[in-house]
Amino acid sequence: MSAVLVLLLLAVLAVVAVGAVALVRLLTRELGALRDDSTARLAELKAESAGQMAARTAEMDRRLQMLNETMDRRLSELDTKVDRRMQSATETSSRIHDRLGKLDEATTQINARARDLARLEQALRPPKARGGFGELLLANLLADTFPADKYALQHTFRTGERVDAVIRLDRALVPVDAKFPLDNFHRVVEAEEDAERALYLKQFGRDVKGHVDAIANKYIRPDEGTYEFALMYLPAEAVYYELVCNRLGGTTSPLTYALERNVIPVSPSTLHAYLLVLVLGFKGLQIEEHAREVMTYVADLGRDFTRFKGDFDVVGKHLGNAQTKYGEAEKRLSRFETKLEQAAESELVTGDERPPAIAEQGETVAELPRARDAA
């Protein structure tokens, strides 16, 4: 029994072994086929992947080439712009350096002018020098505005007083004074405290009124050919501003006081305006003078025309008389001509019957009374 079981077990083992071998062989064949199929599919996938990779690589190369070209072009344009900007910046920097150099030169010149002005200010601190400088400026301004025969410098009156300049306007003179007291004005400018400045302003106001009185009393002389006003030349615009704005203190404005005394304050700029007005006045006087000359000439022409009209009327009367006499003479000439023709006809009729001498005498005797009648 146990032997049978062993045999059966051996048989089963043999069958199992045969089946296992067959299964192994089948699995081997299947694995081989699967390997071949996988190898083929893998080859196909490799080929397809290689084609796609080649296409992708070509596309990437093309795009990289385009990108490189674009970047090269942009970089080239950027380099050009940068070079141009650098050149412009270099030129601008050069101009700035040139301007700075010129500015340094101008600053040097300004400093030199400032030193010159400082020296001029020191030189003009004495009143006499300052007055001479003001007279020089006034003389230059008059020379630039008027012809030489329309103004005079250092005009002397009969009292011995001498004014800096006079302007000849028509038949009268306009006195111009260029000496102005500026000492207290300089003290006003240099004062550091308000109380001190106010004190010097009052003193300067008194100086101005005193100078106005001196001009009015010395130079306004209608009996010596001046107008009833004078010009007070102020050498600085700042002084004129102080006068006009009435910042000198006191109840009466120095400008009002000067105008009440017929003294007109003028600065370098306003004096030029006044002088231009005077120039226009000169032109108006010249036009008026020319107009008078024209009117005189027209009056002479009127008188000449009146004489010519009288002569023309006389000539017309003579011509009328001559025309009348001419008409009468023409009528007499016509009658005389008619009588001559009649005499000629009568001579032709009687000429054959009488000798020529007798006929001529008879005709002459017969014609004379008729000729007298014709006359």
Main features:
single chain, 375 residues, alpha/beta, 5 strands, elongated, disordered C terminus
Describe the biggest sheet?
Answer: 5 strands, mixed
Order of helices and strands: HHEEEHHEHHEHH
Shape: elongated
Secondary-structure content class: alpha/beta
Low-pLDDT stretches are 357-375
How many strand units?
5
Number of helices in the DSSP assignment? 8
Question: Which range does the strand content fall in?
Answer: 5-15%
Oligomer: single chain
Strand order of the largest sheet: 1-2-3-4-5
Whole-angstrom Rg: 67 Å
Percent of residues in helices: over 70%
The average pLDDT value, as a whole number, equals 77
The rounded distance between the terminal residues' Cα atoms is 225 Å
